[in-house]
Amino acid sequence: MTRRPPSPLRVAFDDPEAKQAWVNWLFSRVAPRYDLGNDLMSAGWHSRWKHRLVADCGVRPADRVLDLAAGTGDVTWLLGARAWRGEVVGLDINADMLAIAEEKRTPGLDHVRFVTGDAGAIAFDDGHFDLVTCVYAGRGFPSWPAVIDEVWRVLRPGGTFANLDFARPPNRLMDRAYRGYMTASGALLGVALHGDPRTYTYIPKSMRQYPGQRWLAALLEARGFDVRMQETTAGLMAFHYARKP
User: Fold this and answer.
1) Does the structure show a pLDDT above 70 at 243?
2) Domain 9-167+211-243 is classified in which CATH homologous superfamily?
3) pLDDT recorded at residue 96
């Protein structure tokens, strides 16, 4: 894995192909210490928010579930424990992240598998899944509308798409202060964990580019989903639960 990103980050945000290449470089670079970085940056809160999302989805034992941009598998394994008679797939475009996810496998979860693939071109049949999840990943997608179209296609009627991501707080001062904290702490962690401050500065930069949780809710509604949105932690995080009629 090269130490140099494929392009400057400011260029990557202006071009979908460059953005995908940058994200691929980033997550291959951070994969070995990705979980530790999340724990330190969020003081462990990311795990609580992930548990909350999975609990709110009402996963049933025989459900077929797809976890998009599964990363190191935290959410995929939580889903696997609940859909223990079903099918659980963790999909991610980065094989290095999925290798870390596979290392977490424990007995009794043979129905969980990881697949390398693109969230914008999901290799499953129409209506295959009861639930699709996505956690802290949407800001890295080259095209959210393309992903939403694919989610709609692979969900059965009555199925749910559940998304958790950073939000844009309504208070501009809080928004700037939070991104400032993420920039400073991310640079320090990038140096400490990976020897490169650029590895975690992607997060606040992607937050700045992200139009926000209401924009995403509007996209989902325009596609035909019935959407319920919840904000938490002073508007810093947002949950979307979108049901396909």
Assistant:
1) yes
2) Vaccinia Virus protein VP39 (3.40.50.150)
3) 93
